Amino acid sequence: MKIVVLNGSPKGEISVTMQYVGFIQKKFPQHELKIINIAQRAKQIENKEETFQEIIEEIKEADGILWAFPLYVFLVHSQYKRFIELITERSAAAAFKGKPAAILTTSIHFYDHTAHNYMQGICDDLDMKFYASYSAEMRDLFKENERERLLHFFQGYFEAIVRKAPAINVYSPLYLQPSEYTPKTSPNPIDTCGRKIVIITDAEQDHSNLKQMVDRVAEHFTGQAEVINLHDIDIKGGCLGCIRCGYDNTCAYSGKDGFIEFYTNKLKTADILVFAGKIRDRYLSSLWKTFFDRGFFNTHIPSLAGKQVAFLISGPLGQLSSLRQILEAYTEWQQANLVGIVTDEEPDSQKIDNCLRELAIRSVEYANSHYIRPTTFLGVGGRKIFRDEIWGHLRFPFAADHHFYKTKGLYDFPHKDYSTRVLNLILGWLIKIPAVRKKIYGTMMISKMVEPFQKLLSKL
Predict the structure, then answer these.
(1) Candidates 3.40.50.360, 3.40.640.10, 3.40.1740.10, 3.30.70.60; correct CATH number of 197-377?
(2) Could you tell me which residues come within 8 angstroms of residue 318 by beta carbon, excluding any fewer than 6 positions away?
(3) Cα gap 135→143, rounded to integer Å
(4) Model-level pTM greater than 0.90?
(5) CB-based contacts of 391-398 (< 8 A; 24+ apart in sequence)
(6) Which side of the chain, N or C, has fewer Cβ within a 10 Å radius?
(7) pLDDT per residue over 369-402, tens digit each?
């Protein structure tokens, strides 16, 4: 069989993901795995129609399609995302219809599920026959049991193609309800209390709803908000995946385009950030993805800590729970505060007006009080993955991360709470005695759990 491998790494075949593909090719030499470097050749694919069409012809002739890519900031690489947009823009979806599809990713398991959800949604939108996805940890190929697991996965994929296995779509098509947002009331400006406010958007000429929402929020901030369109920023390209930034957060693009200066001088100095974008397929635009990918010059260091962040979204966010989770997780991981998300899905323009005003009011109130909401699993889980990886395998090459995590006390293990450790040791021995164990787990456990809180409340 011929399997077309759509490679999502900007490094082409010199990538960890492609080493997994190489392993599969060695173990299944009877099948041809045709690798097409999508992310690496993104500009050529977009600028040369014949290059794009050559890829589409390869897809038409394939027995199966493997979407293979490393994770980049909760999703695929921005240039891979652009290729997915081109499929729709150039009416090439028919080439994918009915093709057996699988997903292979490599990562450290930081939000790999959101990337898989996105790609499976794309496969469903293209009416492909989705088999399954495989999320490999970057170093799994060195482990015999993981190699065996990987072989089982691909054996199943190949056999499913042979027997023409059916597939059921998990994600329903997006229902786009056209609703024009027209501001109904004159804005009542609020006192920004001297806070620096920056609104970032990718609005284009035909994005009327998004532009209206951006303008309305800016008006609430008494003209103090600076509106910046990503189309006006000199961005030479997407993240190269070179990890040059790992040593001291210096990007390979430094001095070559305007992104680093924009991010450093505008975003990092702001008190309130409003990100405004229009949904493209099941995410925002590839330009927004470039923004998030290029922001990785800060590596695994939260660069927006303490800031108030809000999102203005044009499109069916209510149907995209995974995208909402990405926005929430991004904010929590950045140690910023998510003020809220306002979309244009509401048909009542007056209600959108009210929500935008409330968003502006809360942004200033929270900035004044330095409020950051408690972190949920989205932030805690992600931060611990980074903590463990930077302490271990990623300490080199991410020297800047190691220095930051060490100086900020983020290496919080082993726990040095000696009183708790001694108490656990004593109680651990005591509960081995049947009579004591019966009493503790029978009547004492619940009351003793709340006793320290009751003592605190009595003091307060």
Answers:
(1) 3.40.50.360
(2) 343, 345
(3) 15
(4) yes
(5) 393/139, 394/108, 394/300, 397/243, 397/246, 397/247, 398/243, 398/246, 398/299, 398/300
(6) C
(7) 999 999 999 999 999 999 999 999 999 999 999 9
